Structure formats: C-alpha cells, structure tokens
C-alpha cells in the first residue's frame, strides 16, 4: 500500500487494477475501509484511472447509482433490482466519486459477471453488474495499515499550499532574465544564476576535476593507442587521397575517438598539475595562473607521450608541466622581464645562498658565493642586482600607512630654490657682459656656446648665418674670448665659479 501511494504521488494517479491488487494483498475487503482508502487518495490529489476495456461497466457504478451492497445477490436467492442505465465515463479529474465507487465495487467482489440488466421476468440483461457475496475475514491488521496510509494522505492534503508569490519567485529564480511592469523601458533585469558555485574559484576547480577517476597503467596505454590511431586517421584524411565513403566515415570516427581519448587522458591528470603548481606559489603568480600554465605543459606531454617506452604517463608529464610553469614565471612573474637563462642563474644563486646561510650561520660574502658558483665577485653582485624585486613608490610605510615610500626618495631633477636664484642672477650678469661687445661678437659667442637656446652650434652653421667662412667665425670667436678674459669683464662672473 505504501508503494501504491508513492507511485500515485509521482504520477498523479493510480490504476484501478493496481488499487485492487494492493487491497487484496493487504486483505482489505470491507466496503467502509475501501471507501476510506479511496477518499484518502482523492484528498491527496491522486486519481484512480479505470482500465479501458471496462470503462463502460465501471462508469455504471457512479456516485448517483445505488450502493454496491444492494446489487449483491447472496447465493443467488435474492433477486437483484433493476439498475439505471449507466452514463458515459467522464474525464479523470471530474470522475473522482465514480472512481471511488467503482474501485470499492471491484475490490469487494470476488467475481464480476458480464454487464447485464435484470428484467421484470427475472432474466439478466445487459448493463448490470452482478457481484457474488464474499465472506469477510478478520482484517484488523490490514485495516490499521490502510487507516495509517489514509491519515498520512489527509495530513499532506491539510498542509497549506505554497503561496502564489513564492511560486512566482521560484519561477523567476530559474530564469536568467526577469521582466517587470514597473520598468519604464520594459528592459529585462539580468540576474546572475549560479548552480553550485562558491566564492572560492580554486575550490570549484578542484571539485570539478575530482570527478574524473584516475587511470592505471593499462588504461593509459589503451588511451595512448587510441590517440595514435586518431592521429593516423587525421593524417590520412588531410592527405587529400580519394577514398570510398565508407572508409572515410570509418577514418572520421577513428579520428573523433582519438580526440575523445586525448581529452580523457588530459582530464584524468589535471590533479597532477595542481600538485606540481603548489610548489611554485608565492613567487609572483597566482595559483590559478600557475595551474593554467601547467595545463599547457600537460597538453604538450599528451601529444609527445610514447607508450612503447614502458613508463607511466605521470612520470613523463611531470617534466613538461614543470618546464611550462618555470617558463611562465620567467616571462610573467616579474615587472621587468629577465631572460630565461638569467633567471636560471638567479635561482641557482638563491639556492646556494640559502644553503651557505644554513652552513655558516651568517650571510655569505660575494667572494664566498663567487668561489662556490665559479664566477667573479663582480658577476655575483651583478646577478644579485638583477634578482631584486622592484618596489612601488606608493608602498605605504609606518603603522598607520600615512606615508609612502616615494616620500623618502630624493628627486635629483627637482630645482632647488637657491640654485634657481643663482642661475637667474648669472644670466643677468652674462647679458650685461655681452652687451659690452659688438653685435656680431655677442651673437657668435651666444650661438657657439648655446647661451640662447641651450643648443651649441658648429662653426659652419654660424658661418652660414652670417654669410662668412668657418675660418672667419673661428677668428671672431678667438678675439671675443680674449676680450671676455679681461678682468674688467670676467671679475663679475668669476664669483659664480665657486
């Protein structure tokens, strides 16, 4: 009976034959108990479907007909009253009372005669259901079970239904866009729907790759053979050779199977990449970025794996994964890119320095490192300089972080106020000295030393300006410099040499 209730809740209805079988197994034959069972099913929204061949006969026992007890002939001694002409069977949702009566009549009877109607002469005509009387046995345990099932159904029916607003809300959550009449432009408001995702992307990734089972050596060899066959099939297909359609379809299937085997081998070894990427964390790259670069090395390992060598795939793939991660760190981990060969030297120097620190109990000197690495002390200092990490000028300093690292660095290009004043006075004094010379002499000296625009000019350039030769410009320059060296002109400028 419990199985019947569960099946009815799942499908929304139960078969009348199944109901009769369940009642017979539970030894429920009392009409009152049967009505309680059918009423409990109807209350829970479970309809009783009638079998198609007996639909007309069952419909005759609708709610408007007389009780089934009056249609029972006991040992053939009592004449059955004439029954009304049965109505057509109604739809399942509207025929719940008829279904209850029909089910009760079917279960209570031990034998159902052919549908006939009793005539006034005592003959049995069509459209009548004749039921033999059945002796009721002691069914108290079964009745108790049926009452428990009916009570459970009634309790479920008495529970308050889910509000319409909650149903609408659940419907809105299942879609990506929600339309609202309150929107002015009737534009859909997109919602982010996440199915099982968490705030930790690493955890989500590990959970996803953990669904694929690990492979043993035999499975790896089998997948490698399929990959090899797929590559051979792709080569034949891409060769442009004319072949039969059947052979082409077979080669296409083999190539597709090879790609599936490649994906399977990749997905089964993604956890190997994660275990190797953990060793390189904290060196300038995010953990997920390290995993991604390691996956590229894993793809390369799958393409280069030779199963005929006899070793496992993980042993071979480890080297490709490490190479991909270290190359990515050399190219991407630093703000200023350093060549790969220099990164290897820096890493070697760091390892030797850590080892000597443990052995000596102090920081090793450049000379000691140079002796250990077989290089000059100057080279060691240079490599250490390359290995330094750049620091941002906006790095906060102090406990409160109210100052930045850039505040403590001197700006060598900044103009000191005292120097700016001295430079301005020097320009004024220089112009006063040049005013004591002729226009050509002052112009030649100004252009020769860049006193006007800061760009010194050659003798040829100055000669083209004045339309004379470079030798004449040299003579004018020499004569002018002799005049400027006279104490009457140079004394006012000599004080700025200090």
TrEMBL record:
What Gene Ontology molecular function terms does this protein carry?
DNA binding; sigma factor activity
Domain RNA polymerase sigma-70 positions: 289-302, 458-484
Q: Where is this region: Sigma-70 factor domain-3?
A: 344-420
Any one of the GO CC terms? cytoplasm
Give positions of region: Sigma-70 factor domain-2: 265-335
Which residues does the annotated region (Disordered) include? 71-96, 153-172
**What positions carry the motif Interaction with polymerase core subunit RpoC?**
289-292
Query: What are the DNA-binding region positions?
Result: 459-478
Looking up SUPFAM superfamilies in the UniProt record yields: Sigma2 domain of RNA polymerase sigma factors, Sigma3 and sigma4 domains of RNA polymerase sigma factors
Pfam families found in the cross-reference section: Sigma70_r1_2, Sigma70_r2, Sigma70_r3, Sigma70_r4
Which compartment or compartments is the protein found in?
Answer: Cytoplasm
What are the entry keywords? Cytoplasm, DNA-binding, Sigma factor, Transcription, Transcription regulation
Q: Where is this region: Sigma-70 factor domain-4?
A: 433-486
Signal peptide residues on this chain, from the entry's feature table: none
What biological processes does GO assign it?
DNA-templated transcription initiation
Where is the sequence biased in composition, kind Low complexity? Answer: 80-96
Q: Quote the NCBIfam families the UniProt record gives.
A: PRK05901.1-3, PRK07921.1, RpoD_Cterm, sigma70-ECF
Job of this protein? Sigma factors are initiation factors that promote the attachment of RNA polymerase to specific initiation sites and are then released. This sigma factor is the primary sigma factor during exponential growth.
The record's HAMAP family line, in alphabetical order, gives:
Sigma70_RpoD_SigA
Its subunit composition reads: Interacts transiently with the RNA polymerase catalytic core.
Q: Know the name of this protein?
A: RNA polymerase sigma factor SigA
């Amino acid at each position: 009976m419990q199985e019947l209730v569960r099946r009815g809740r799942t499908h929304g209805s139960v078969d009348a034959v199944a109901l009769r079988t369940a009642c017979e197994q539970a030894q429920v034959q009392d009409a009152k108990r049967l009505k309680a069972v059918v009423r409990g099913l109807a209350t829970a929204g479970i309809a009783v479907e009638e079998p198609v061949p007996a639909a007309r006969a069952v419909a005759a026992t609708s709610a408007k007909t007389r009780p089934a007890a009056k249609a029972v002939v006991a040992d053939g001694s009592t004449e059955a009253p004439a029954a009304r002409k049965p109505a057509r069977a109604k739809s399942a949702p509207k025929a719940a009372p008829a279904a209850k009566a029909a089910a009760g009549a079917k279960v209570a009877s031990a034998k159902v005669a052919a549908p006939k109607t009793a005539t006034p002469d005592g003959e049995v005509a069509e459209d009548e259901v004749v039921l033999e009387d059945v002796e009721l046995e002691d069914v108290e345990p079964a009745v108790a079970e049926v009452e428990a099932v009916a009570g459970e159904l009634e309790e479920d029916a008495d529970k308050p239904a889910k509000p319409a607003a909650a149903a609408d809300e659940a419907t809105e959550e299942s879609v990506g866009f929600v339309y609202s009449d309150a929107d002015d432009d009737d534009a859909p408001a997109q919602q982010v729907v996440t199915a099982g995702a968490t705030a930790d992307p690493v955890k989500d990734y590990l959970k996803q790759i953990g669904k694929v089972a690990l492979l043993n050596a035999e499975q790896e060899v089998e997948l490698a053979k399929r990959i090899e066959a797929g590559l051979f099939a792709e080569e034949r297909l891409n060769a442009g050779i004319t072949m039969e359609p059947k052979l082409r379809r077979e080669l296409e299937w083999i190539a597709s199977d090879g790609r599936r085997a490649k994906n399977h081998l990749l997905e089964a070894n993604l956890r190997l990449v994660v275990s190797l990427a953990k060793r390189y964390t904290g060196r300038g790259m995010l953990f997920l970025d390290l995993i991604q670069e390691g996956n590229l090395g894993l793809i390369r390992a799958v393409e280069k794996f030779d199963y005929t060598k006899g070793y496992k795939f993980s042993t071979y793939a480890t080297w490709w994964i490490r190479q991909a991660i270290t190359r990515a760190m050399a190219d991407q981990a630093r703000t200023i890119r350093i060549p790969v060969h220099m990164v290897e030297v820096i890493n070697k120097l760091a390892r030797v320095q850590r080892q000597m620190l443990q052995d000596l109990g102090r920081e090793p000197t450049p000379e000691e490192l140079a002796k250990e690495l077989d290089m000059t002390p100057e080279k060691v200092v240079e490599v250490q300089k390359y290995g330094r990490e750049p620091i941002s000028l906006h790095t906060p300093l102090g406990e409160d972080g109210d100052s930045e690292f850039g505040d403590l660095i001197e700006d060598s290009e900044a103009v000191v106020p005292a120097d700016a004043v001295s430079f301005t006075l020097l320009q004024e004094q220089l112009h006063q000295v040049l005013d004591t010379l002729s226009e050509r002499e002052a112009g030649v000296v100004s252009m020769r030393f860049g006193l006007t625009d800061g760009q010194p000019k050659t003798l040829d350039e100055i000669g083209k300006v004045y339309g004379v030769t470079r030798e004449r410009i040299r003579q004018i320059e020499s004569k002018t410099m002799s005049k400027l060296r006279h104490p009457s002109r140079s004394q006012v400028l000599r004080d700025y040499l200090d």
